[in-house]
Amino acid sequence: MEENFPLAWSLTIGTLLLIVFLVKLLKDRRERVDGRTSKLPPGRRGWPLLGDSINWISSVASSHPPRFVEEQVKRYGRIFSCSLFGKWTIVSADSTFNRFIMQNEGKLFQSSYPKSFRDLVGKNGVITVQGEQQRKLHGIASNMMRLEKLKLHFLTDIQMVMLQTLNNFQNNQVILLQDVCRKVAIHLMVNQLLGTSSESEINEMAKLFSNFVDGCLSVPIRIPGSAFHTAMQARETIINKINKKIEFMKRKQPATESGSNGVLGRLIEEESLPDEAIADFIINLLFAGNETTAKTMLFAVYFLTQSPKALNQLMEEQDKLRSATSDDPVMLTWEDYKSMAFTQCVIDETLRLGGIAIWLMREAKVEVQYEDFIIPKGCFVVPFLSAVHLDETLYKGALNFNPWRWMDPENQEKRNWRSSPFYTPFGGGARFCPGSELARLQIALFLHYFVTQYRWTQIKEDRMSFFPSARLVNGFQIRINKRADEVSVSMH
Ligand code: HEM
C-alpha cells in the first residue's frame, strides 16, 4: 500500500493537471470566440439552430420585405449580426457599408450561392464563377449590351417583339398581367440572345425556361417529379438547343444582317470562348434578365394603376411619340427613347419601391475589419439594398409611389444608379448588372406599346409578396380595351 502511494499521488496530480489544462483550454477558446463575437456587429443568436431564419423568411415574404431588418436596426444599428440558416450572418442596411461590400467583390467578399443553384445555372457562368474568370465574362456581357449595341442591334428587335406579343388582345379580354409580362420578357430574351423569332421555338423555350426558373427557387431534391429535377432536365434541354445553334452558326457564314443571330451569334464571331462556356454564358443571361425585367414591367403597370395622375402623365408623354395621322404603332427611334423623361422616372421609382433585387448574397473571403467590427472569414454578408431604398430618412414618403421625386434637382445625384450609394437597383462594383441599360430600354418600350394601345381596369384587389420571388399574390387581373376603339366609340 505504502509502495503504491507515490504512484497514486502522481496519478491524482496528473489527472488534476489534465483537468486544469482542459478547463483552461476551453476557457481560452471561449474567451477567444467571445472576444471575436464581441467584435462582430451587435446582434442576437435567436433560436438554437434556427436562429432568426423563420423571422427572416416571414418578413421577406410579406409585402414589406425589410420589416425584420428594420426591427433589428432599431435595436442594434444599421449593421447587425444574426444567425440565418445555421450560419452567422452580417446584415447591412447601411448605404456606405453596402457600397464597401460591393466595391470589394473578389477581394474581401465574394458572391455566394448554394450548390444546388450553381448546378442549375452552370459552373461556367458569370453569376457563379469568381476572380479572373468572372471579370472576363462580365466584360464580355457588358460589351454585348452596351449602349451602341442597343441602338444598333436591340432597338428594332425589341419593338418587333412588343408588336408580336402585345397586339393580339381583344376588347374586354381579362388578362393576368404577370403571365403577359413573363411571356414578353422570355420572347425578348430568346429573340435577343439566341436570335430566334419563330413563335413555336420561342413558346417551347418559354416552357422550358419557366420550369428552369421554378427549380431555381425550389427545394433542391433530385427525385423525378420534383421541381428541382424538372429544372435540371430543362437545363439540359436548353443547353442542347444552344449547342445545336452554336454548331449551326459556326457552319454557316457570319450573319450579314445586323443582329440576326442575336448575342449568341456575336459571341461566336467576336469572342473566343469554349462551347460549354458559351452555353452557360447564355443561360446565365437568360436567368438574370428574364424574371427581373418581367417583374419590373408588371410592377410598373401595377403602381401606375394605383396612381392615375402618374399614368396620365406617362400616357401624355408616350402619346406624343405616336403617329399623328395613324392609329398604327410607329417604330420609335433612339431619340424618341431618349425623350421619355417621365417614363424614366416611373422606371426608377418602380425599381426603388418594387425591390426587384432586394438583397445580395455575399461571403467574407478573409477576416474583414470594418470600422470597429471584425467579420470572420466565411461569414455570410447580406447588403440589404431595399432597406436603403425604403429608408424614410433618405426618401420622404418612402412607401409611396412618387415618380416625381426623381425630377427634384436635389435627388439628381442620388438617382445615379451607376454610382449612387443610396440607389442601387442594379447592384454595384465588379458584379454591377451588365444588362441594366438593356432592361431599361425593354421596360420603356413595353410601357410605350402597352399604354398607347390599351386602357385597362383592375378586376381584383391584390397585394405584393416577395418570396420565393417577387409577385402579386392573387395575380394582377385586368380587363383590357383597345384605345383606338375607345376613341372611335367616343367620337360617334
Ligand atoms: C430590371 C431588370 C434588372 C435588374 C433589377 C437587375 C439587377 C441586377 C443586380 C442587382 C445584379 C447584381 C447581383 C449581385 O451583385 O450579386 C445583377 C447582375 C447581373 N445581371 Fe441584372 N438586372 C436586371 C436585368 C438584367 C438583364 C436584362 C440582363 C441580361 C440580359 C441582366 C444580366 C445580369 C448578369 C449577367 C448579372 C451577373 C453579373 C456578374 O455576376 O458579374 N440583368 N442584376
TrEMBL record:
It comes from the Eukaryota. Its cofactor is heme. Keywords: Heme, Iron, Membrane, Metal-binding, Monooxygenase, Oxidoreductase, Transmembrane, Transmembrane helix. SUPFAM superfamilies: Cytochrome P450. The chain crosses the membrane at residues 6-26. Heme binds at C433. Belongs to the cytochrome P450 family. GO terms for molecular function: heme binding; iron ion binding; monooxygenase activity; oxidoreductase activity, acting on paired donors, with incorporation or reduction of molecular oxygen. This is Abietadienol/abietadienal oxidase. Gene3D superfamilies: Cytochrome P450 (1.10.630.10). InterPro entries: Cyt_P450, Cyt_P450_CS, Cyt_P450_E_grp-IV, Cyt_P450_sf.
